[in-house]
Design a protein that fits this description.
The protein is mainly alpha-helical. The chain has a domain at 295-482. The protein is 79% helix and 0% strand. The chain is built from 17 helices and no strands. The chain has helices spanning 3-6, 40-69, 73-81, 83-92, 94-112, 114-151, 157-170, 172-189, 194-216, 223-245, 260-290, 298-333, 337-374, 381-413, 418-439, 450-477, 482-501. Helix 5 (94-112) runs parallel beside helix 8 and helix 8 (172-189) runs parallel beside helix 10 (223-245). It is globular, with a radius of gyration of 24 Å. Mean pLDDT is 80; it is low at 1-8 and 10-17.
Length: 502
């Protein structure tokens, strides 16, 4: 064999290492694509494609919705009715459960094997099913009082009654979504993002179907998209079932409050759920204030503007954050804090930089985009102008919201859910204060800006606080990095050996 063939091959250095690799061959069809494990960039790419598809379908849905219902009482009742179900779901399940479950599941799988990991999964699923059923029953009971006195006190009795009815129908949504969340968490922990990504894309299919029923079946009205919401979340659950079946799941009906793994999940879930709950309480506060705005189209305008702003937030904050989370959890569980720190700051830093041009694009292209997409049928030019005004405020909130989503993943990977809860509580109080403050100076049509600007100030200051706290936390953790400890031991050994030989 020649000397050239014996020479060791040099490893080509890639910025970011394996966790940031991107190979188009990993996206080839067949060969177990749904079971394939993806890097941060590959997983984020999949989720971004799904979110783009979902948002395009969401725009189609919103165009149909606006043409049918405009910014009138039915539309306002529908938007308001979604607040309580969304809050209850995210309080108990949603991202809160995913962030609490993944680190514990990975630790159990590594330390105790697949059997114990699946027992823990079964226990979490059983507990969640019972909890969401109880929440559903409580929500049905408190819906009238919540709607009349907290959510939309400034609306007419007829609008309150319609909102209450729609809320009670939509309360089935958290129960269905809760079961799907466990499946999403399992697939994400295995770094299998394809089916969770597809589930995001199919959500709007059910809603569009409900709107088409309203359009072509007389008398259905606003109940079409309301029941379409339930069909949408059912589709999200069903589309992930094939991926779950391929994981060789071992389900067992166990009920053990003393299970140590369940206690770890609950310890992380409690502050995590409170943090998410605090964020969604902010949406309820926005709706409460919007019900007193002089322009009756304000709530619908805010919803449409927020939907447009949600696309870059989802692409940058949600997709990248969801893909990054299991990788950070793996490094944290293995005690590789130096590598975790490098991974976190490279991805988070590059992602936040993207939010600035995205915010400028929203501000510049918002008006023609709203006119082109939404100004049809019952959605008149006045509603279009009001939506554009709200979008200018939401564009200012984009960097802070995306950064907050990404930074919170670093704390969850370290099994620290209390810090995000504290910072979210700060953001809620700041948001409430700024709403009161801005309403003193903004009047008439400009009053609608108080809602998005209050969000922008709260989200931006919260993200700055979280960045400082995460930087300090990771700096302290580096002292306990196992790789660095081994390197330091080897350095001491080589130094002692040199001294002995001298």
């Amino acid at each position: 064999m020649s000397k050239k063939s014996k020479a060791p091959r040099k490893r080509r250095m890639v910025w970011g290492g394996r966790f940031l690799r991107f190979k188009l061959s990993n996206f080839r069809l067949g060969g177990g694509l749904s079971l394939r494990r993806f890097s941060v960039l590959e997983g984020a790419f999949l989720l971004m494609l799904a979110l783009m598809t979902s948002r395009v379908l969401g725009v189609v849905r919103q165009v149909i919705f606006n043409a049918l219902f405009g910014a009138g009482p039915d539309a306002n009742a529908y938007y308001a009715a979604a607040r309580l179900p969304d809050t209850l779901y995210n309080l108990i399940a949603g991202g809160a459960l995913i962030n609490a479950f993944i680190p514990v599941f990975l630790a159990y799988e590594k330390e105790k094997g697949d059997r114990e990991a699946w027992r823990l999964t079964s226990l979490v699923f059983n507990m969640l099913l019972v909890a969401m059923t109880a929440v559903l029953l409580i929500g049905e009971y408190i819906a009238p009082s919540f709607v009349n006195h907290i959510l939309i006190p400034g609306y007419s009795p007829a609008e309150k009654d319609l909102t209450t009815t729609l809320t009670r129908i939509m309360l089935l949504q958290p129960l269905i979504l809760g079961m799907g969340t466990v499946i999403t968490a399992i697939l994400n922990s295995r770094r299998q993002f394809l089916l969770p990504a597809v589930s995001l894309a199919v959500y709007n299919v059910g809603l569009i179907g409900g709107l088409l029923v309203s359009k072509f079946v007389p008398g259905v009205g606003i109940y079409g998209p309301t029941y379409g919401t339930l069909v949408a979340v059912l589709l999200q659950l069903v589309v992930q079932l094939p991926g779950l079946a391929k994981q060789h799941v071992r389900y067992s009906f166990i009920w053990d409050f003393r299970h140590p793994g369940l206690r770890q999940v609950l310890i992380l879930l409690l502050p995590n759920a409170l943090a998410v709950g605090v964020a969604y309480i902010g949406n309820i506060i926005d709706t409460h204030f919007a019900s007193y705005l002089p322009d009756v189209a304000s709530l619908a305008a805010l919803h449409n503007a927020e939907m447009l702003q949600a696309l870059p937030v989802a692409l940058i904050g949600q997709a990248i954050g969801q893909s990054l989370m299991p990788h950070l959890a793996i490094e944290s569980t293995a005690g590789r804090y130096m590598r975790m720190s490098q991974m976190a700051w490279k991805v988070i830093g590059a992602s936040i930089v993207l939010t600035v041009p995205a915010a400028i694009v929203l501000a510049v292209l918002g008006k023609p985009m709203i006119h082109l997409l939404f100004q049809h049928g019952a959605f008149d030019p006045h509603a279009s102008e009001l939506t554009n005004l709200a979008l200018l405020g939401y564009a200012c909130a984009l960097p802070g919201l995306a950064a907050g989503n990404l930074l919170s993943g670093g704390f969850f990977a370290l099994k620290d859910a209390w810090t995000p809860f504290v910072t979210n509580t700060y953001a809620l109080l700041m948001r409430w204060f700024m709403l009161y403050f801005l309403f003193q100076f903004l009047h008439g049509s400009m009053a609608i800006l108080a809602v998005p600007l209050a969000l922008a100030i709260a989200a931006g200051s919260e993200a700055a606080i979280m960045a400082v706290l995460l930087l300090l936390r990771l700096r302290r953790k580096r002292k306990h990095d196992k790789g660095m400890q081994r390197l330091e031991q080897r350095r001491r050994y080589l130094k002692a050996r040199q001294q002995t030989s001298a």
